[in-house]
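Morning!

As promised:
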Amino acid sequence: MVNTKSQTHVETAWCPGCGNHSILEAVKQALAACHLGPQDVLFVSGIGQAAKAPHYLDANVFNGLHGRALPVATGAKLANPKQVVLVESGDGCTYGEGGNHFLAAIRRNINTTLLVHNNQVYGLTKGQASPTSGEGFVTKAQPEGVFSEPFNPIAVAVALRAGFVARSFSGKVDHVAEMIQKAVEHRGFALVDILQPCVSFNKVNTFAWYRQRCTPLPGDYDPSDWEMAMKKAMEWGDRIPIGVIYRNDRMAFEDHFPFLGREPLGHRGVDTVRLREFMMGLA
Amino acid sequence: MMNGNEAIALGALSAGVKFCAFYPMTPSTSIPLTLVSQAQKMGIVVEQAEDEIAAINMAIGASFAGAPSMVATSGGGFALMVEGVSLAAMTETPIVVVVAQRPGPATGLPTRTEQADLEFVLHAGHGECPRAVLAPGTVKECFHLTRKAFEWAEHYQGPIFLLTDQFLADSYRAVAPFPLEDLPPVKAGWDGTPVTLPYRRYAITEDGVSPRLLPGMSEHLVVADSDEHTEEGHLTEDLEVRKRMAEKRLRKSRGLWNEVIPPEYIGEDQPEILLITWGSSKGPLLEAAETLRRKGKRAAVLFFGQVWPLVPHQFMTRLDAAQQVVCVEGNAFGQLARLIRRESGFHIRRLVLRYDGLPMTPEYILRELS
């Protein structure tokens, strides 16, 4: 039987009080709730403090380059669609370095779950602004404060009609776990943007700051209503909505390849009869 | 009749390619387009990626999950893929990279030809890693060397390069049908028996090659990391482990070295003039040498179908035996000549170079030699 004990505890490289700890716990809860054992999942990550998370799980792991987790996950999913693939990385990796892949993964609707640890700052490189840092956020690299408008991943994902778009907050472990479970169960691309404090480098968006603002969506909220979802996606201030903001049933990318359902790509042989036909056709 | 790119696609299909990602770039695009024409029938996935960075990372992801994978691009696109080359090397993931050259720098002459990316491909990727660079000289060699690239990528678990150019990519030649039924495809990964527990993806071995299980296809967990890692695949700052891992990876170079395809020698021993070349300049050079012989000059050709690694003892006696040695290349630096000097100490003093965007021709070579 799969439960959170299917996962062993490993010492992490994170600061005490970092939101990553509770997200890790939520991931373990969600995997257990989905009855996924270590062999059943592949975690792909990039580079950053969040991207280390899969190393602290018992799972198949590909910890790749900064910003490039989504393409790796896309290739891996297509090669073996039966494998449950999750991508886990931070706001800098996913929305900054990997921004183009974020847009493309949404458009493809590849059946993977993207978990973004969003603390609105670069932690690994010690406190520069991230794409989601607020305007005016002061860092050593942005001493006059951030001039750029923050990237709104939820709004972008909803605008592109992503398959599944949710937001959560690391201070509510059960909520994070519930969002991850729903994301994994969704057939298509699923984004879970998880707000979390960075105790070392973000003194503005603290645990208390998020806790005060993060408000669950009302019980009668309909995530299939795109216009309402766009409206919710733009809410950011005294109240920040958390929950499943938008979802639809677009066809998952891999379902466009009928032959993929049968077996992993690597198990297929070479049909030399067809290949010979092709070769002779070139003549 | 087929052209170089079609022969590469055919070679890849014969070798068992199952995944190809690409971003359109002349003169490489007809490779993925040829593959996609067979994709549904042959059960392979060909995906146009959002950029070349995505293309190589997708191919690495697919390969990690067990699908023999390739990318095809040209110089500028390959520049974007370079970090991925390093990733394939560090995670020890097989991948075949086709670079169809065109004149640079930057956008250069997009629809013309050149052989100026040898040094680029040879050095592409930060850090140190084993690699092999194949440079087919004919359409037929495009087929066979593509198969070789897949075999080596799979066995040595890393990037293997195929370096062609616009001239070869688009040149149609009559080619005798390949005996496809007799040419086995590569097999991705390892059958997993017996596994010493716990399974270690990067187990230290004598030849540097670690048994590669595929994720989700056995009871064992497969962990790969672009950070320096332990044998289990988890990131580490242990500098002793780092040293052992670096040495393990580099030991794979010895295996590749032992398999290097010797350069092809055409002509009599101890010629008056030995003409050296690589890649698509082969045909024109053979014709130029033939003309010289008809005029009574004892001319021979030394053709490199593999330009890395270079194994000096395979060709030094040929260089030493010739009265005069000339290197003929489609670039302005004489890149193969420089590489031969670096690896063997032999200084080729006479060069015939072409970098006006046009293919090497026998007439051009003979004019430059006279």
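Residues 264-369 of chain B form a domain with the Rossmann fold fold (CATH 3.40.50.920).

Hope this helps with the figure draft.
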